[in-house]
């Protein structure tokens, strides 16, 4: 009874909330300078499969007092779990392809993720089934939510019972189904959720929580997954894993005795006192709710294949071709009032002349774009509300001045081009917080995809300066705004700052999010077939960072 | 309303700008705008009618100004727009409880705003360039041959702001000292680029209470054959008295400031350089 592991091992997919959110695993990037001086980025996706959805991770995992297993916890996964490498390699370019495609329509409205419920007796192989479904689906942005995270906090009396193996962890009363339903509803709404981390030694919830956000498919698994009617009606597909009870007992004995060093008597006592009755009274009868019953658990590849195929069909029906739609939407109307265009002064026109010119060398491009960025940021700041204050001056007279009404301002840059604007924000606001969102265009579909996200914990209280250097169709910006709204940022508190936009982009964003303030230095008429702005500026990120393809 | 050459410009803000140019001078001198409903063009800043007279070479069709002339100081004395943002920067600079590090940080920001506006006064010409997408862009190009001149000491605080915008601009200096007894300003030192008479001069001096120092400095520039209309004075705070003195002494000099207020924050140089 070593009890060495008293907490979940950190999952790479969904972070423990130490103050930051993560939804995507960090990619291990190696930069190597090729002989032409170009930087090539190669990537090894660090987790070929979700770590916590795998089999028990270490044989040294100590036995815990709890009768429950500690194998799987809730995870979010933002990469396909196997096979196809999520990057495209060109001759000189490497492009990641496994981001999250749009999960909302072109009005910025949300489309619900698909929720699969997996139920079955203890040691029936629910996790294996869930994992195999994820593998078979091979889609990014899958969230696995485990009922185990929702054990109730034990009272002192229950603690003593648990210590004597007399607390019934298999009874419905042991779970907080209200919180389960609340969490699932929020996940379905696409909102960020804080999933509790249950400590099986202290039987308390950790003060930390696991932040989950952004799922196209949610798998909810647990022995009593079908018990609560509230939860049941949130499930789009219900899968029951039906494994022979002898086999389940054998697995349980193996797991508890061989891997956790527990006594045979204790395991059997618990099995007959709690586990088996719970199965007979609560779990087995819930089989009637199931759409699909999978015999023999994870070994049943035919069943898993069928499930995956069905889910894929459902996902395709919900799929979007957003950018094309955005580019073709025709708005024959006046510019929206949320657009704040900088006055076209000689300096701004002159700066545009420098950075739009294809022959401008990179150092000048960087210098002049920085100047232009500074002007955008200053202009956007001037649009914020200010309140009147009176200060004392060294000259002895009071001075009627102004002070910014909101102190909490946070920059969020849309990688990669948006990052170029962070510095200007830091130059005008001391100690400003900076969040990042990585959105890349999938070259196969032309759609923007969300890859990575890191935002301050309390972002909902902030006024956000969302930064992207250029906005063509507005697809990436709309995705980023959607992400912020999902994190409960108020729409009025978002200022989108960019150097160059198109008529279309302005209208698309203003149409989807009329309260978002749009600040830019120029609006160009249209985009070309490659979604580049015309006359435009070229690929801003490539020109700024020097990663233009060499064949141009 | 007086008008000779006028151009209609349509902007996203549904406003019409009548931009006047006075015969002979090369500058955009005044910008009146009216809030009114007009036809909205999908494109930005297009001339409505091709038969309008072509404005002087430096005046581009798509250019707007956001500067406001100040009542009573002539057409060349202008304020940068008094946004809440600018007001906040002024408040921080004036607040006696502002720490030195904050003071310098926010003073530099205000300086940068004034400098950016000042650069808008420089001459330029139209040009067309090709973008990486292969399209033409009607841009403009600033004419080379400008320089900055700072009045020691507080004017030097503005040099960095200018250098941040123009990396390799030439900088001259003038040291003007007040006689302790007579309070008369006198020039102690001046060093300029050789060809300063051929250049536009951005004269930098942040605080004007009486205007005497600036008058001395402009006199020195004129001794070096700099034309009055080629001088653009960049200033942060001016008193009405100083504004009157300078505009009557040099009616054709361009002056740009952020605030006209009876009490000038005279502690600026001391606090910026930390010698208080």
Describe this structure as you would to a colleague.
Chain B: GO terms for molecular function: GTP binding. Chain B: This is Uracil phosphoribosyltransferase homolog. Chain B: It comes from Scylla paramamosain (Mud crab). Chain B: Keywords: Cytoplasm, GTP-binding, Nucleotide-binding, Nucleus. Chain B: Its main location: cytoplasm. Chain A is α/β, with parallel strands linked by helices. Chain A has 14 helices and 24 strands. In chain A, the strands form 7 sheets. In chain A, strands 13, 16, 17, 18, 19, 20, 21 and 22 form an 8-stranded mixed beta sheet that branches. A 6-stranded mixed beta sheet of chain A has the order 3-7-10-6-11-12, covered by helices on one side. Chain A has a two-stranded antiparallel sheet with strand order 1-2. The relative contact order of chain A is 0.13. The N terminus of chain A is likely disordered. With 276 residues, chain B is of the alpha/beta class. Chain B has 2 domains: 65 residues, no CATH class; 205 residues, Rossmann fold (3-Layer(aba) Sandwich), CATH 3.40.50. In chain B, 24% of the residues lie in helices and 29% in strands. In chain B, strands 4-5-15-13-11-8-9-10 form an 8-stranded mixed beta sheet, with helices on both faces. In chain B, strands 1-2-3 form a 3-stranded antiparallel beta sheet, with no helix packed on it. Chain B has a 3-stranded parallel beta sheet with strand order 12-14-16. In chain B, strand 8, helix 3 and strand 9 form a beta-alpha-beta unit. Chain B is globular. Classes of the chains: A alpha/beta (552), B alpha/beta (276). At the A-B interface, helix 9, helix 10, strand 14, strand 15 and strand 24 of A face helix 1, helix 2, strand 6 and strand 7 of B.
């Amino acid at each position: 009874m070593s009890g060495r592991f008293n907490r979940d091992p950190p999952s790479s997919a969904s972070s423990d909330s130490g103050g930051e959110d993560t939804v995507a695993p960090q990619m291990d990037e190696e930069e190597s300078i090729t002989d032409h001086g170009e930087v090539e980025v190669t990537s090894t996706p660090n987790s070929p499969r979700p770590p916590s959805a795998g089999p028990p991770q270490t044989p040294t995992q100590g036995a815990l007092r709890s009768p429950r297993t500690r194998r799987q916890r809730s995870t979010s996964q933002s990469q396909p779990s196997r096979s196809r490498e999520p990057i495209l390699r060109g001759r000189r370019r490497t492009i990641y392809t496994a981001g999250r495609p749009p999960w909302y329509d072109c009005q910025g409205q949300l489309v619900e993720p698909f929720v699969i419920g997996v139920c079955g007796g203890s040691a029936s192989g629910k996790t294996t089934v869930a994992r195999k479904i994820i593998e078979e689906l091979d889609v990014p942005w899958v969230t696995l939510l485990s009922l185990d995270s929702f054990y109730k906090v034990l009272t002192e009396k229950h603690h003593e019972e648990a210590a004597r193996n007399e607390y019934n962890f298999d009874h419905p009363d042991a779970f907080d189904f209200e919180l389960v339903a609340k969490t699932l509803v929020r996940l379905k709404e696409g909102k960020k959720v804080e999933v509790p981390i249950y400590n099986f030694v202290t039987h308390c919830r950790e003060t930390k929580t696991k932040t989950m956000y952004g799922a196209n498919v949610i798998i909810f698994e647990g022995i009593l997954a079908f018990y609560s009617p509230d939860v049941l009606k949130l499930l789009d597909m219900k899968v029951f894993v039906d494994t022979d009870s002898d086999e389940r007992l054998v697995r349980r004995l193996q797991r508890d005795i061989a891997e956790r060093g527990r006594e045979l008597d204790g395991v059997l006592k618990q099995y007959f006192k709690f586990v088996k009755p719970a199965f007979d009274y609560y779990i087995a009868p819930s089989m009637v709710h199931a759409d699909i019953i999978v015999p023999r658990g994870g070994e049943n590849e035919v069943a898993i294949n069928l499930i995956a195929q069905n889910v894929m069909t459902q996902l395709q029906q919900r799929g979007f071709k957003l950018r094309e739609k955005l580019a073709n939407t025709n708005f024959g109307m006046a510019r929206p009032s949320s657009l704040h265009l900088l006055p076209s002064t000689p300096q701004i026109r002159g700066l545009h002349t420098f950075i739009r010119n294809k022959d401008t060398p990179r150092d000048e491009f960087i210098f002049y774009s920085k100047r232009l960025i500074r002007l955008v940021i200053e202009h956007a700041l001037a649009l914020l509300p200010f309140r009147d204050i009176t200060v004392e001056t060294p000259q002895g007279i009071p001075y009627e001045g102004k002070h910014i009404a909101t102190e909490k301002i946070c920059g969020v840059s849309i990688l990669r081009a948006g990052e170029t604007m962070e510095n200007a924000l830091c130059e005008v606001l001391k100690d400003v917080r900076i969040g990042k969102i990585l959105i890349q265009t999938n070259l196969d579909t032309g759609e923007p995809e969300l890859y990575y996200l890191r935002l301050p914990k309390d972002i909902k209280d902030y006024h956000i300066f969302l930064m992207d250097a250029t906005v063509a169709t507005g697809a990436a910006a709309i995705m980023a705004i959607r992400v912020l709204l999902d994190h409960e940022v108020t729409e009025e508190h978002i200022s989108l700052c960019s150097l160059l936009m198109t008529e279309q982009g302005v209208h698309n964003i203003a149409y989807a999010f009329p309260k978002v303030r749009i600040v830019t230095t120029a609006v160009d008429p249209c985009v070309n077939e490659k979604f580049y702005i015309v006359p435009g500026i070229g690929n801003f990120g490539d020109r700024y960072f020097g990663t233009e393809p060499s064949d141009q | 309303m007086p008008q000779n050459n006028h151009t209609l410009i349509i902007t996203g803000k549904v406003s019409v700008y009548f931009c006047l140019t006075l015969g002979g001078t090369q500058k955009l001198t005044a910008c009146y705008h009216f809030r009114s409903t007009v036809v909205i063009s999908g494109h930005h800043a297009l001339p409505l009618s091709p038969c309008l007279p072509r404005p002087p070479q430096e005046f581009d069709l798509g250019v707007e100004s956001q500067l406001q002339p100040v009542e009573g100081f002539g057409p060349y004395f202008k304020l940068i727009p008094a946004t809440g943002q600018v007001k906040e920067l002024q408040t921080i600079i004036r607040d006696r409880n502002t720490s030195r590090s904050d003071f310098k940080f926010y003073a530099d920001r205000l300086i940068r705003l004034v400098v950016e506006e000042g650069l808008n006064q420089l001459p330029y010409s139209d040009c067309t360039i090709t973008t990486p997408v292969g399209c033409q862009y009607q841009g403009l190009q600033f004419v080379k041959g400008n320089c900055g001149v700072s009045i020691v000491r507080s004017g030097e605080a503005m040099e960095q702001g200018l250098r941040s915008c123009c990396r390799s601009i030439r900088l001259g200096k003038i040291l003007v000292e007040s006689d302790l007894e007579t309070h008369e300003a006198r020039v102690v030192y001046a060093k300029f680029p050789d060809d300063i008479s051929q250049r536009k001069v951005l004269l930098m001096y942040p605080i004007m209470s009486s205007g005497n120092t600036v008058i001395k400095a402009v006199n020195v520039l004129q001794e070096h054959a700099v034309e009055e209309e080629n001088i653009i004075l960049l200033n942060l705070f001016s008193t009405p008295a100083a504004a009157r003195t300078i505009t009557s002494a040099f009616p054709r000099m361009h002056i740009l400031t952020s605030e006209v207020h009876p009490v000038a924050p005279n502690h600026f140089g001391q606090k910026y350089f930390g010698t208080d």
